[in-house]
Specification:
- The chain is α+β, with helices and mostly antiparallel strands and 425 residues long.
- It folds into 3 domains: 93 residues, no CATH class; 163 residues, no CATH class; 136 residues, no CATH class.
- 48% of the residues lie in helices and 15% in strands.
- It has 15 helices and 13 strands.
- The strands form 5 sheets. Strands 8-5-9-12-13 form a 5-stranded mixed beta sheet.
- Helix 3 packs across helix 4.
- The chain is elongated.
Length: 425
Amino acid sequence: MSESIRAFSPKEQEQTEALKPRPAELKGMSMHAALSPDFPQLPSKGSSSLLRQKLLALQRSIGNRRLRELIQRNRSATTSAREAEAFPARNAAIMRQPAPQAASLSPALLHQVGLDAINTYYGAAVRGIDLFVRDMSDYFNWAAFWGSLAGNLIWAAACFETGGTAFAISVGGIGLGTAASLTNPTKEGFSAAAETRTTELVTSMRNQVSATGDEVAAQGSAATPAWDENRTRLELLRRIGFRRDEIVVATGGLPDVDAPTITARTRSALLLKANEERMGVIGLTGGDAIYKYDLANYLESHYLGVTHSAKPVSDWQASFHSSEVFLPEGGDDALANIRRGMPGPVHVADWPIAKTIVVPADTTRRLQLEYVMIHLDAKNQLRSVELEGVFKDYAHDNSISWEDYGRQVIAKVWGTASSRPPDIP
């Protein structure tokens, strides 16, 4: 890959950040001269000596051509910051205007757009992994968790896949190998192993940017009318894997990947996986979404109200009382952290946790247990039904199996015979 499209190495990135000129150091420097297409001129001796030293060091580190590109990229940001400080009202009005649409990007610039997006993803994903590791308790079984992943990059799928086998096919296409077992079953061991797998993914993606960028550039130029910069960038990001609408945002009017969203989705995907229903040492363990409903017109009185029996489920009047999601892993903020990566209603039906229905919400009457408790597995299939009090008597007296009784109750409270739970706001 030529120098003009080569991505910065981690060492170069550190050097670049450390050596970037600060606004206070720009006094005395001719930006017109510095941005000349020829050799990037350094500030005169009368200007800041510190700035001169930094640019000399940066020139030796990354070369003349890369230095000129760095200055070009920073000119607009520096100018915008200076204008924003002097003309806040005018600048706010300008920022509300749609970004100008240039012609389709050249292959070289398109390659850099792709590499920058991939590098942004890597940094944000590693951040999400680190936050997840910090969330977990000291007693979490890291070896078992790594084994449950079975080589699946669940944290990457949360940012790339769009449903079905799209992401699986993409991963297969870039040739990721099978993940090794976790040799160090600790927080540090998992973090290192997950980052290694992410590095493998990112490296493979980088290797495809050149060919994909050439393909997008050629297709955009041949189109009638030719694609503008917005369409070209968006097409490239989609084709290299960023197909989720939540990940791609318009930064300054142009499509780019959003680092905070990537971090949040990476963290939430791992937290949700850590709380999935699974067989533990003493039985089933994992998260549970609990729905409670109040009941009316479900009792039949006998002997002037001395005794009662349950009415048929079809006669009941059920109303929603409350819902809660129990997550044993990830601390008290586990649900809040998951929702940061998955904003909006909680689609519990798609979560790999158990679901429970309780009717009535007040499970005791006259100090006696009296309830129906329905348990669904992580795939929303009916697992068991607990009956107590008048409900147990009714099922027994009418020879109704617990499965049939459970399905009748599900249809009453959820309005459908299917066992797909409603979203939680």
